[in-house]
Amino acid sequence: MVKLFGQAFIKKMNARVDTHKTRVIHALDVANTFTPDASESARKELIERVCHIATAVEPHVVAIKLNYPLVLAVGLEIVQYLKKLHPDLPLIADFKVADIDNTNAWIARHTYSAGIDAIIVQGFIGEDAIQGVIQEAKKAGDQGIILVVDMSHPGAAQFIHPQTPRLINLAKKLKVSGVIAPGTRPPQVHEIRNLLGNETLILAPGVGAQGGKAGSAISAGADYEIIGRSIYTADNPALKAKEFAELTYTAQPPADVSPQEAFSNTLATLLANVGAIKFGEFKLASGKTSPYYIDLRVIPSFPQEFQILTDLFTQLLAGRQDITFDRIAGVPTAGISFATALCNRLSAPLLYIRSKPKKYGQQKRVEGVFEPGDHVLVIDDLITDGGSKIEAVQALRDADLKVTDVLVAVDREQGGAKQLKDAKLTLHVLAPISHLIKSLEAEKRLSKSDAKRILAYITNPG
Ligand code: BMP
Hints:
By secondary structure, the chain is α/β, with parallel strands linked by helices. It has two domains: 7-250, TIM Barrel (Alpha-Beta Barrel), CATH 3.20.20.70; 259-459, Rossmann fold. The chain has 18 helices and 16 strands. It has helices at residues 7-20, 40-57, 68-74, 78-85, 101-113, 127-139, 160-174, 186-196, 216-219, 229-232, 237-250, 259-273, 303-318, 334-346, 387-398, 416-422, 433-442, 448-459; strands at residues 24-27, 63-67, 91-97, 118-122, 144-148, 178-180, 201-205, 224-227, 277-283, 289-294, 327-330, 350-353, 366-367, 375-383, 402-411, 426-432. The strands form three sheets. Strands 1-2-3-4-5-6-7-8 form an eight-stranded parallel beta barrel, surrounded by six helices. The chain is elongated and about 85 Å long. 6-hydroxyuridine-5'-phosphate binds next to strand 8 and helix 10. The site of 6-hydroxyuridine-5'-phosphate has 17 residues, from strand 8 and helix 10.
């Protein structure tokens, strides 16, 4: 079990789920509706309004989120007013911190020392800048950090969303308490949950005023839904908060999935989305027919999906300390683009294997720089009977390289693993084809009868 930052914050929020029967975080953005007015009376009025709404909604929320406009209007002392009224109610500062490490540390120091339980930080600023906040969270006694890995508004598609898989990896690496995911797009919350694993919290804004349906993000794998305007602009904020509390509390969370199932689910969705897996009747090179056709070579034409696939490979390797290597080699042709992307992600040196030796020069089959004895991990898109993998491994072994492991995205389950074992190779796969079929059936992208027919074919292709 990974120990995330902000244990006390996480425990406090999680405990309130059942004691208060809710999964709502209220975004108390009331300062947004205020005309800026620096007068003391306006300031006092705003503080009173904030305290009044906080008290009204407190029985129905797990936490309250405070934003920049509020703190700019009344100062960080608002935290003390709220803490005095509700000492056990977690408070999150939504400052979306996005500066250099030194400035971030300064912001975090002030914020944590004011009594805030967790700070929201942008992920795109990179590891060193996020460390500015992490170090302060540690100094303040293990406070919470929430990283933005995606956002709920349409513009998120432009820059942040394409980086989401990498931001998730960073969130996992830095062991932040939680991430922000778009409550307006539950399928993406689902994907984030699959990539993130089960421990890190997912907080999903965009429910209500922005169009997200209450409970949908929870059903997609979020822990909490962040709701602002739909509560604080209601005639009766307490009643509204109670309604949302019920909807989020009774929403069915997705069933717990093992890492292997998570790989299958993500990969199945990805393959279906880009048309890399098709169902019907397909003539194979052998002359036989198959009820499915899989072509992973299309994936690099879809940058977002290509990133997710690279991410899945990265995650599989991260969870397997027993797979060691100095270099990664791609099997031609599909394996070369996958190996290139993975090397890029892991900063690992790349080799690739020619299908045929070069007719001129040194007649090499292995391209790239290596030393005899280097340990090479072999990557390819899929495995059928293992023939092409063994042939590629032979070329590497002929060049005095050590090969013990082969990693592919999909195993067609036609004897590849056994053949590799006989050649003293261990096969690692993101998903066997039968798991992908089951995932697609569960996602209702494949009918029960078609899934049954295809699974029967996989067991007995003859
Ligand atoms: P509302 O329910 O009124 O749309 O409020 C949502 C809250 O969540 C706001 O405070 C907003 O700043 C914040 N938020 C968001 O809406 N989308 C994001 O991607 C990230 C956010 O923090």
